[in-house]
Design goal:
The chain has 260 residues and is an alpha/beta fold. The chain is built from 10 helices and 5 strands. It has a single domain, classed as 3-Layer(aba) Sandwich (Rossmann fold), CATH 3.40.50. The longest helix has 25 residues. The chain starts with a helix and ends with a helix.
């Protein structure tokens, strides 16, 4: 009997090892989508996942999770979110077994969306100056704290931080109503300033920075196939956010170029 047991033990051990590997092979990669309205899906004219946060199935996190085999999405990005919201609520969804994290954050900390909408009405030179000052003097520390918290929750996760697409291309149209060419140029420059700061702090944290602007070229608010909405009077929360095409053909392939 003892001889039989000794002969069976290696076989049993090998079988258990195979089962362990099989379990690992089929364990879904946990993907946590953090961030603001540019990750929640504002601009896609849908709130079919969560109305209070404007989350929807046209946003890039949902599309990435659907296209990427064996991926389990935890989608907590929310319209209006700032770095404080990431720290106070969203980052709790990031755990040690998280494999992928994506986010857009920083725009609301410097009033980016409301700034662009203001430019369509009352003029925004003072706010442009204020936002650029906030980007230089306040945002870096806020981003550092946010990225450090993400890393502490999931030290081995692949973290992809997306920038914001430039909305304009120095041309006028109905979608850019109220925004002068000079304001367009200044707002694009502010977007670049914001993105450069996000990129520097993300890379300092050891994260990947995903620049959307190669895909956004030729798809400004005045293009025939815009990746960014212009002023949207029927649903102002969608104004100056990615279109469905922007999410599907801009952000989604960009993220997949990092996470597969």
């Amino acid at each position: 009997m003892h001889h039989v047991t000794r002969r069976l033990l290696p076989a049993i051990g090998a079988a258990l090892l195979i089962l362990a590997f099989a379990g690992n092979a089929y364990a879904a990669d946990k993907y946590v989508a953090l961030g603001d309205s540019y990750s929640a899906g504002n601009g896609a004219n849908s709130t079919n996942l969560n109305a209070s946060c404007n989350r929807n199935t046209y946003a890039y996190p949902y599309l990435v999770s659907q296209q990427r085999p064996n991926t389990a999405l935890t989608f907590v990005a929310c319209a209006g979110a700032t770095t404080s919201d990431i720290l106070n609520s969203q980052v709790a969804s990031v755990t040690s077994d998280t494999k992928i994290v994506t986010l857009t954050i920083g725009g609301n900390d410097v009033g980016f969306t409301s700034l662009i909408v203001a430019c369509t009405t009352l003029g925004c030179q003072n706010q442009i100056n204020t936002s650029n000052s906030q980007i230089a003097n306040q945002l870096p520390a806020k981003l550092d704290a946010t990225y450090a918290s993400i890393k502490s929750h999931a030290p081995t996760a692949q973290v992809v931080v997306l920038g914001y697409g430039r909305p304009f291309a120095h041309r006028t149209c109905l979608s850019a109503f109220g925004v002068s060419l000079g304001e367009e140029d200044q707002l694009n420059a502010l977007t670049d300033n914001l993105n450069n700061t996000i990129k520097a702090r993300a890379q300092a944290a050891g994260f990947s920075y995903a620049d959307p602007n190669a895909a956004w070229t030729g798809h400004d608010v005045c293009a025939s196939n815009p990746f960014t909405n212009g002023l949207t009077l029927t649903h102002t929360a969608d104004s100056y956010h990615p279109t469905r095409n922007g999410y599907a053909n801009g952000d989604t392939p960009l993220v997949r170029s990092f996470v597969g």
